[in-house]
Records
---
Amino acid sequence: MEYAALVDVYDRLAATDSTDGKRDCLAEVFADAGPLLGRLVTLARGRLSPAYDRTELGVSSSLTLDAIRRATGATESAVRDRWQATGDLGDAAAWAAEHGGQQTLFSEPLTVERVHDTLRDLADFEGTGSQDRKVDAVAGLLADADPDEARYVVRTALGHLRVGVGEGTIRDAIAVAFLDGSADAVDAVERAYQVTTDFRVVAETAREAGVDGLAALDVEPGRPVQVMLAEKSESPAGAVADAAADGTAVCEYKYDGVRIQIHVDGDDVWLFTRRLEEVTDQFPDVVSAVRAGVEADRAILDGELVGYAPGTVATDARDPVAFQTLSRRIKRETDVEALAREIPAVVHLFDCLATDETRLESPLSDRRQRCSDVVDPVTPAPDEPRAGLELARSRRVAVDDPDAAASFYREALDAGHEGLMVKNPAATYQPGRRVGRLLKVKPTMEPLDLVVTRATYSEGRRSEWLGRLYLGCYDPDADAFREVGRLSTGYTDDELAALTDRLEDLVTARDGRDVELRPEVVLEVEYEEIQRSPEYGSGYALRFPRFLGVREDVAPTDADSVGRVESLYEGQ
Ligand code: ATP
């Protein structure tokens, strides 16, 4: 397929406001895709691999700028001016391809396959000279691109397609292309995606084997599963009333750490965060504990990874460290062994999605039993801790009366944990869903996770730092971020300096002291109140927002949604 045909599709998607229109447009493309289906399904969202594969292409704006300059003959300052004027390096590339003045003597039309594979392979370039080779590869594509093609090659290389296609649209398009498009068909595609997290597998299965094939798709060690999510409840008693089956609910500590999915297949171990990012290399201590402690050839376990003050891990009074401290272990710092000693981690296991076979359809009580069966029985529960053991079960009680839940809640808070999880013991595991069978109770008004969309340099003493950050909540229908306020307090100088370093890598356009950013950094923000506001795209504004920290474990599209802000506003 010629890349020009895909570019037409991108233009149509960008020009279509309705999600049904986008769905139908993509369904047509998928139905005719033949052997390119896998590639087209990821390219439709400007990606080159499934969502969980976070291999970075390592293509920065400045590398792309160099490639544009080299391929088109346009000067760097001309491309920069254009970039600044439109805020999009893709548009600047289109302009350069048209006006750059370079004559290509030998031009080979771009194909979808060539663009996809060339960009995907950039991630493998490593070591000395790799930057130059990347520039060459991108410039090679741009040299053969017409202006419209250049726009999308650049946007795909930078990971920001700007055609407004969310995961829901891909799901619906697959249901229309290969099934009957009904609500049942959409559900079948959705479930298949939640267990595989790979639209390539889902689309190909829908095409080859229909609804039955999708239903047969299963979790597999090594391929992260979307985690089951919790709903908020106002009180322990209310949560128990909602979650009880036959009068009994399971209460567990709500640990304040990082959700971790542990996958085991023989000697292979993988760790994934809730945003399905692989963090195996960052936790060698946990990996060895899993190798030593999990007695199953294949398993997928779910738990919360918590950091504890080093001297306290082996005592009765374990002292959990703040989430921000733990998140140092998630970032790719080099000395992982030293960090493991400084911030020892314990995984509190609470679920088992698969052992030798899938357990998603089993009730929680069975899955929990499986969890205990496959983890070495000498591993103590957290109330009988022992040094050097990184796997523990989450502390839990079965309750049938509200007072017991309330006192367990107090116990959890007194031990320094975040609150209470209340679970229905008969519930199946529902990947990616908030279905009310998993409830959380926390003491305060919940902070929001929001994405930094643009920023302004501060004045005065902090003038080198991006101290005013515009925050967006996610609009899943449009796959866009709607602003909900501006943040300028709560950070220390060090935090602000570090944040500025990160945000400066994401700048897409500058205008004086204002910068536009790729929406990639998620912040946890507390606030006093939500107000209606015509000033921001979401229609709401946070009153007195304060920075709490960076949420390394939350993907931008998992940030709080416009709908969530709306319902918090209603509930105030
Ligand atoms: P929050 O910010 O409140 O953690 P969230 O949006 O990150 O919310 P939710 O699914 O709404 O995630 O809240 C549940 C989270 O609590 C889980 O994802 C998990 O990371 C964590 N957690 C801590 N302890 C437990 C436990 N015992 N059982 C289940 N989840 C737990």
---
Amino acid sequence: MEIQKVMVIGAGQMGAGIAQVCAMNGYDVMLHDLKEEYVEKGLKGIRKQLQRQVEKDRISETDMERFMRQIHSSTRLSNAEEADIVIEAALENMEIKKNIFAQLDEFAPSHAILATNTSSLPITEIAAETKRPEKVIGMHFMNPVPVMKLVEVIRGLATSDETFNTVKSMSESLKKTPVEVNDFPGFVSNRILMPMINEAIYTVFEGVATPEDVDEVMKLGMNHPMGPLTLADFIGLDTCLYIMETLHEGFGDDKYRPCPLLRKYVKAGWLGKKSGRGFYNYS
Ligand code: CAA
């Protein structure tokens, strides 16, 4: 199946990144959010990213304007009627996602694939909201999307080979490396990453070392580009907590229990970089 028109639901950090990468690789993109101002904010971020590429002489001003023209804004889900694939990158909340997928199933043409960028929610359960579970799939991009090479492609129970192969080819056309994963809590990426971050938080909680020193150990000792606590702030502590809760509930094993310090920070509104405070201070 040939994909030309992509609709991206959610103009936040992930959605905007996905829209940018799709436009830069020749797709016609519709960037959707609930309000025009959210879409505008996403578009502004994309322009800023592209402007940096112009300054580094990687793309021309003309390319930048062409990519921007390829991204149209949307505030009506019914615009899905024009899409060959919809990539949902809305809030990590099962009820919200189910609601979006039920509506997309009504509006999108019958050939359209409905993909979700969820970081840990079950694809099979989201697919069950639609009458086309064979066309529902996980397409998990990493943050920052324009930089990170991986797309975890997650098969739900009913995902067809045709859907999988189309999404695999599309990921390659975005110059990403798709990796096939089955539908289990946290998939592969977050099943491994989040317990490491949670353990780093326990290390601070138990007074073993400061956040700076925990990060230094992992950067210098393990060659990680960012220490786990800087990364947690970058991902968002609310997202980290949500994923840990999904793992804890999904596997029922106490080794996934979120650290109380993580809960405390989230309750305090210390959500990391986006709120100005997390394990580090950004103000
Ligand atoms: N958006 C777009 N591009 C960005 C960016 C952003 N937010 N931040 C940095 N970059 C680009 C820079 O422009 C630069 O590009 P060039 O090399 O082409 O000039 C490149 O990334 C390197 O940037 P810097 O030199 O400023 O900084 P760095 O070397 O420290 O790299 C980083 C920044 C790529 C973010 C690096 O620190 C890194 O890889 N960190 C780990 C990121 C990671 O683990 N992501 C996965 C998070 S988990 C997830 O996303 C899934 C989930 O479900 C939670």
---
Amino acid sequence: MRTAVFSTHAYDREFLEPAAQKTGHELVFFEARLTPQTVPLAAGFPAICSFVNDSLSREILTTLAAGGTKFIALRCAGFNQVDLAAAAELEIRVARVPAYSPYSVAEHTVALMLALNRKLHRAYTRVRDSNFALDGLLGFDFHGRTVGVIGTGKIGLCTAKILAGFGCELLFYDVYQNPEAATLGRYVPLEQLLTASDIITLHCPLTPDTYHLIGDATLAKMKPGVMIVNTSRGALVDTRAAIEALKSGQIGYLGLDVYEEEADLFFRDLSGVVIQDDQFSRLLTFPNVLVTAHQAFFTRNALTEIARVTMANLTAAEQGETLVNEVMVPR
Ligand code: NAD
């Protein structure tokens, strides 16, 4: 299928091109993010392939439909960026890559936790400056600490398994209970998870229910000095509230791989540019905040699987087969 691929980087081509060759799909790569300004590039393409920060609003979907697009292959798991009701009305089908490597995201989550605890980001620069003093680098044992996992699907479960290996006590909150997770820890009400956890890690999708799940009210219930890690979606955390909680010490450590306004920042080299997002800049001033730019998924294994499943989705759509990874409007 002739497909316009948006938000393409060299690493995307490296994995998508061989997968397309094997399956006979014709990919046309655009570096641009999909926005109201760039959507005309998709005119005449029956399919487009997009990533996490490509907008698929009603306005953009309407332009895509008018240009003949019938299928959207998301090369990611999350689909909060898609107006699914509009897509259904416009008869555009949408498929995603539901599980490419939960290990990649879980391992990065735990990397953020460990780095924050042992202050590796500070130790790295300190040692390079021949400062071998340990003051300020004191950490704690993960063994015996209570970790609250919000969202116990594929990534939450993988994260829980790693933390169980460290000897952490695990508390879970989810709208559905995962029997495998239940063997590693206890499901508790959200309030109990918030009050009892030393570390809270977010692995639920971004929905109207989870928007700003971490905000003034939930932060106030947590243990002072709590560690929060978000590798899920930026808008699960109210950045303004997090900054206030960092200033007061209520948050002791904050690890973010995602940020609610990341679309204007991440996946690009802005090193010569003055950042205009004051909240983001403020976050970077805290010594106990560690931000990575949506790289949790970024392993060779994950990119190989994303390319393979994306091509399979294109093939199924083109040949009218059952679209096993179709994303539908939630009932
Ligand atoms: P999943 O669908 O397997 O699991 C999500 C879990 O969240 C499910 O168990 C679901 O029941 C639960 N959930 C839904 N609504 C909830 C709510 N209101 N409160 C509590 N739990 C709720 O998804 P996954 O593959 O584990 O991915 C989790 C999230 O990770 C995705 O939604 C995506 O946004 C994010 N993600 C991030 C990256 C990255 O690179 N940073 C990569 C992949 C996925």
